[in-house]
Amino acid sequence: MMPLAARTALRRAAAPGALLAMAVCVAGAQEAITFTDVERARIAQLSPLGDPPPDPTNRHADDPAAAHLGRFLFHDERLSGAGDVSCATCHDPARAFADGRARAQGAGLGPRNTPSLLNAAYQRWLFWDGRADSLWAQALQPLERDIEMNGDRRAIAGLIERDPALREAYEGVFGPWPGNEAGMVDRVFVNVAKAIAAYERTLVSRNSSFDRFASGLANGDPSAMAAISPAAQRGLKLFVGKAGCRMCHHGPLISDGEFHNIGVPPHPEVPGRDSGRYDGVRLLAANPYREDGAFNDADPYVRPVQVRQGPELWGQFRTPSLRNVAVTAPYMHQGQFETLRDVIVFYSTRDGAVSAGHHQEQILAPLELTEAEIDDLIAFLQTLTDTNPGADLLVPPQSPIFRRDAP
Questions:
Q1: Closest by alpha carbon to 367, among 232, 229, 233, 241?
Q2: pTM for the whole thing?
């Protein structure tokens, strides 16, 4: 039974004319965590996470048959040059669609960490440097990149043409096989990526214990508020308050989706300096598979954001979503930090931070957190972990062919 003091606090919070600040009491706990009006408003901005935004550039984005084919292709090592690497090699479903490595290991060793694909459908920009502006444009690049899958679009098109099940599945989504018409290989190549993107759009994770707590806080439901511990609640207060995490990690994705240079020291085994967004903008501008290119399905298409390259972009990297952050170590664009504690200590002390001159983020200063505060922040970040998407989404289907009448 909830202690008398907790019941009294909740009655006062719900009474007409009461202050909106609420004492959040975990049943059976000995402490009450109080959130101010401002903190409650900031917490409300972090949850719930709605449905992914539509992708008009991919007319098959939400087609179950395309997603089914994409799930098969995502796990198909035959798309790689040596037949031994698939998308799932680096985006391992058992590891929240990351790989647990500091740097991606596909056909070769990459220079950057593998981001999780969970909730990737909400991202405006893809890759650490934002060099792709759609899920399908992102899916194209690893297929042929030498250190990732090292495949070849002609070989991929030939595989689909010759494999009876793949061809039937392809034609079931994209229509009759294009034959030898001009541009056939490029069109098939793009369609493969659009099917993979349709699958990736189903990888939604949005029912964490924090989400349940936030709903309870908004609705005055003490049982839902008990979803996270008092330590996690104290960490949440730090997150939306003193620690300033919400400056870059806000909104239901718990990320601003933009790019920042926070002075993270480079990985000692990666030579040179990574230019990040600076070259990402150049690569995006040169990419024929941009959203506004010849392969987009939107008519008419209006680019929502115009991006210009400037020196201020040097060394900037995309702010990752913090959803499922506790299970996607190591952290930062080169996996420089092995644990959440390492990350928070870096922000707390700024020890080892690399100066980027006047283009570095100017708002960053050592947080000077206590050990107890670091523990509380970690406890909160752990509440952002959700169960993975349904078990059927974690493994390849037995056949690429989608049966619309299947149970």
A1: 241
A2: 0.90
- Measured CA to CA, the distance from residue 81 to residue 322 in angstroms comes to 34
- The answer to whether the 37-51+206-288+309-390 and 64-203 domains have the same CATH topology is yes
E strand or H helix at 23, and its extent? strand 22-25
Of 315, 217, 306, 278, give the one whose Cα is nearest residue 13.
217
Fold (topology level) of 64-203: Cytochrome Bc1 Complex; Chain D, domain 2 (1.10.760)
Per-residue model confidence as pLDDT tens digits over 98-132: 999 999 999 999 999 999 999 999 999 999 999 99
pLDDT digits (tens, 9 = 90+) for 12-52: 334 333 333 444 444 334 467 999 999 999 999 999 999 99
Q: Where are the domains of the chain?
A: 37-51+206-288+309-390, 64-203
Strands (E), 215-356: 259-260, 317-318
For residues 95 and 258, the answer to whether their CB atoms sit within 8 Å is no
Domain range 37-51+206-288+309-390, CATH class = mainly alpha
